Amino acid sequence: MSNAAALNGAAVVVEDLAKRFRGRRGSPDVIAVDKISFTIAPGETLGLVGESGSGKSTVARCLLGLIPADSGRVDVLGRTITGASKRTLRSWRRDMQIVFQEPQESLSPRIRVGQAIAEPLELHTDMDEAARQERVRDLLELVALAPQLESRYPHQLSGGQQQRVNIARALATEPKVVVLDEPTSSLDVSVRAEILKLLVRLQQEFSLTYLMISHDLPTIRNVCDRVAVMYLGSLVEIGPADDVLREPEHPYTEYLLGAELPLDPDAKPKAPPVKGEVRVGERPQGCVFQTRCPLKVDECEAEQPPLVEAAPSHQAACIFVGTEHHVADAAE
After folding, report:
1. pLDDT per position as a tens digit, 67-85
2. Residue 40 φ then ψ, to 5°
3. What's the pLDDT tens digit per position in 224-264?
4. What's 22's DSSP letter?
5. What residues contact 47, with CB distance under 8 A and at least 6 apart?
């Protein structure tokens, strides 16, 4: 995959990425990511979805070299992240950045806003103090914040303003790839919409490549070009966002869509016949979703199905791909 993706000019190439964490007190190791592969084209937004514990944030951190992968390969902008030294990764940081979930926790309470935005400029550029101050003012304007806010501390800002500061800081060094790890989940609905519009505008203006991690399907539907669905460390479905969210091929994706709350407050939510929740560390033999899947048959216990093509550029890892078996039918 790597060579072909490189020829096609992919901004991000992930090939057979695997990561596990040591279990506590003699318990088995936790398989956080199990040999997943995907690419992201320049200027594209790939949404990574799944319940908590599915391995989404681990993928993001391996992609940026924040934690080491156990095996597999990650290339970002033609550079191999896996196996690179800390010093080398530090020299690449200006081209790949991340916006975390909790805006206030991402900002030091003892550092003023202007200093927080200027910090990556001090670390990754040769700008003098005057140039950095000018760049900070430009970035505040870019994310629609008043210049006088640079002298304030994070606790003096609203949640939406704090996240705008984080976005400004992430864009300070003019990166090409940005990971968005649940960037709006802790914000009010109205503020969430404003931040998403800002992210879309900035992507169009600067040709940014996004990996957006979220469990919020409306966000994924409105922002992402493609979507990848993870469950217990495995990639179970990937394809164009419209196709995957309109005609899902994996029962887990169907479940996620069925669990989505309706916009009409008087409408009853769908009741997908899927029981239980993600149990991190309890990875079954065979299909990872079999313990919760209402479509399970004996064949599901044999092995984890590979991703197979359900439609052009749309793949799913289920033995029922292309059949008329659906989760909704199991409720009848």
Report:
1. 999 999 999 999 999 999 9
2. -130, 125
3. 999 999 999 999 999 999 999 999 999 999 989 887 766 66
4. P
5. 212, 213, 214, 219, 220, 223, 224, 226, 227, 228, 241
Is the pTM higher than 0.70? The answer reads yes
Helices (H), the chain: 2-7, 56-63, 86-92, 113-124, 129-142, 159-171, 189-206, 217-223, 241-246, 251-258, 327-330
- Amino acid in position 226: R
- Token match 């695997």: residue? 18
CA–CA distance, 145 with 54 (Å, rounded to integer): 35
Please indicate whether residue 263 or residue 168 has the higher confidence score (pLDDT). 168
| Distance separating alpha carbons of residues 312 and 287, to the nearest angstrom | 24
User: Scanning the structure block, which residue is given the tokens 């791909």?
Assistant: 321
Residue type, 284: P
**pLDDT tens by residue, 94-104:** 999 999 888 88
What per-residue string of b and e applies to 29-66 under the rule 16 or more CB within 10 Å gives b? Answer: ebbbbbbbbbbbbeebbbbbbbbebbbbbbbbbbbbbe
DSSP 52: T
Of 172, 107, 166, 176, nearest to 134 (Cα)? 172
Q: Cα separation of 24 and 28, whole Å?
A: 8
Pair type for strands 79-80 and 71-76: antiparallel
* Nearby residues of 258 by Cβ (< 8 Å), 6 or more positions away: 270, 271, 272, 274, 327, 328
Name the residue among 270, 297, 323, 281 with its Cα closest to residue 29: 281
Give the Cα separation of 50 and 227 in Å (integer): 11
Q: Which amino acid is at 246?
A: R
Q: Positive or negative, the Cα torsion across 119, 11, 211, 282?
A: negative
Amino acid in the structure at residue 98: I
State the first-to-last Cα distance of the chain, in angstroms, to the nearest integer. Answer: 42
